[in-house]
Amino acid sequence: MSQTCYLILDQGGQSSRALVINAMGQTLAHAAQAVATQTPDADRVEQCVEELVDSLQQVAEQAVAQLTPAQRDNLVAAALVTQRSSMLCWQRDNLEAITPVISWQDRRAHRWLVEQKINPQWFRHHTGLYPSAHYGASKMHWCLNQDDQVQQAFIEGNLMFGPLAGYLAARLTHSADVKVDPANAQRTGLYSLDHHDWDADLLQLFDIPRNLLPDIAYSCDHYGSLTLGDLTLPLQLVSGDQSAAIFAYGQPAEGTAYINAGTGAFVSALWHGTNYPEQLLRSIVYFAEQPQFVVEGTVNGAGSALNWAKNLLHLDDCDEQEDISINTGEVPLFINAVGGLGSPYWRANMVSSFVGQGSDQQKLLAVQDSIKFLLQSNLMVMQSHGFNLQKIVVSGGLSQSDVFCRRLADLTNTPVWRPEEVEASARGAAYLLAQQSKVGRAISAAKWSELAGTEFTPRQETQQALQQRFERWRAALQNRLNDFAA
Hints:
Number of domains: 2
Radius of gyration: 22 Å
CATH class of the largest domain: Alpha Beta
Helix content: 25-40%
Strand order of the largest sheet: 17-18-16-15-21-22-23
Distance between the termini: 65 Å
Strand content: 15-25%
CATH topology of the largest domain: Nucleotidyltransferase, domain 5
Number of strands: 23
Oligomer: single chain
CATH superfamily of the largest domain: ATPase, nucleotide binding domain
Structural class: alpha+beta
CATH architecture of the largest domain: 2-Layer Sandwich
Shape: globular
């Protein structure tokens, strides 16, 4: 039985992590380091480039140091997954960063983007996305027109910019050239789904020269080699966190929705045919000879909404609460527009608000429920277009709450399964590497999903009250949407 191992680097919003996972899906080593986020103003979210690079190098070395000599000998390849829409600008000649990492949560270019009056259907046809300041293109345009150092580098012919993933891969491998995978390239809003390259019309729309962007490779490709002490390890996969997460427990199953709930919450499902729901995204999750797509819904405010509530309500603990008098009409509802209202409504500049009065604990419950209500709204769109929902698989930090899982099962009337192994992005990347390995393929496909977990089944005694609360929330949100459009 093969013990082939893979090193997975996972750069998230709150931490950099490194895991060593073998071809059977077992985690052999784990290291993590917290990273900071700066918010210079309400629309700006940034991270320090050097902190991300250094933290990834450190956790990679720490994880490898935990291995036995035999495990180390069986370590054959590495992968890197990152937040998809984060980007930065750097100097072409030496990879020195010019800007901080501009997070996917950053919306500094929102006003400019609205003024362009981009046709959403046209944009979605080209990119699979909706026009949004969360994606990289408007951030790149902003940097070219607002940042003096970026402008100077452009004049000197020494400017490049692009997704965080490509830059980190080059820095960690000391590569001279930067290239990026399709999943991260798509999240710039400059990638053509038809041609699988940077799109000339989109580049013109955002006034971005093609030569400032890195080349696009396959998801599994040679991105350079990591040096970890006396060990040299090829970096053979680069992907987005949510793109990799859907493969966390093997090949995605029909009728299963995959929810990864961290800073944001994302729900994905395999999709066949051309009847893609217009309110949702069509996302590349893996590209080898042919691309693999899912339909994806986006909730911008998940963990970030809980942090928002913690600061607003001055609460020390935002753990999921059991039901607090949800049968009373006095319990407030929460219109969750933290980070902008995402799918299926797409109102980027809506402001979050409570509807009704209640205690701080009840308001916290309202924020927690709003995350599930938005996920259910996306699932309902999928179901209205023929998706036969039979099971929900959850991962990410919020999935560690039993209450979150129970209430999600009750609300959707669907069994929710939470595996014991919840590092979905890292596991998915390891699975994809295993599928590329002739040694790992035979056992990984058969064994990968054979992991222990907890199933939460819908509870009839609580479904009615929660469903009524959801319908009240939908009505309140519709009123806000009507006011927003007026």
